[in-house]
Amino acid sequence: MADVHTPVIRTDIPHSARIWNYWMGGKDHYEIDKIAGDAGLAVDPDISTMAVQSRQFLIRAVRFLARERGIRQFLDIGTGLPTMQNTHEVAQGVTPDARVVYVDNDPLVLTHARALLTSTTPEGVTTYIDADFHDPEQIIADARNVLNFNEPIAVMFMGVLGHARTYDDLLRIVRTVLGAVPSGSHLIMWDGTDDSQAYVTLCENYTGTGGTPYIPRPQAQIRAVFDGLELVEPGFTSITQWQAEGTEVGEVRPISAYGAVARKP
Fold first, then answer.
1. Which domains does the chain have, with CATH numbers?
2. The organism sits in which domain of life (predicted)?
């Protein structure tokens, strides 16, 4: 659980979770994050679309698993700052007894989490673990205090694995967590891809500010994360096109953010 000591929140270095919050139209960021966010928008105007659409993907995927697959447990790793329709609100809106564990190691996220926990349902459980996703063994150990690892769990990595130090690290993290959950569990995962030069440049510029590097990777590498799993229709695709509702005008446009939902056999 969260550290009992007073968290140290750096306001002189931009942070990806706070910048993401700014791009989504939230208020939980500092001036340094707004500056970095505006600089990012100047390089890649699509980044705000990615931020908004990533939340829409989360809502659709969590609702699908709760409603269609009967999933009652969710492990949301690298959750970021609370915003509208968070994982527990979506899941418990379908099944009030859903149990949701959020994982993050950002002090600001953990501070906001304490207030967010008040919105859980009486039947359900919502809690946070203070941990770095580079230590999946610790996440699993702490999550066992809340989740039943004999029953299916939805494991979520929503646009955070670009922060993995290497691609091998990325695979190790996902496979360690999936190795601990039973058959019938699901993986919800998306990440930024390198097929947009503007997005790649944005990420390089962010690294130059002193923030934790975020590495866009080829679609094939992201797709490989789902090897050995049973993809849910429509399979691996741009997050804007995963079980998306039709639009009144035109069609849903793919963006440089790809992922899927898949079942562990």
1. 16-263 (3.40.50.150)
2. Bacteria
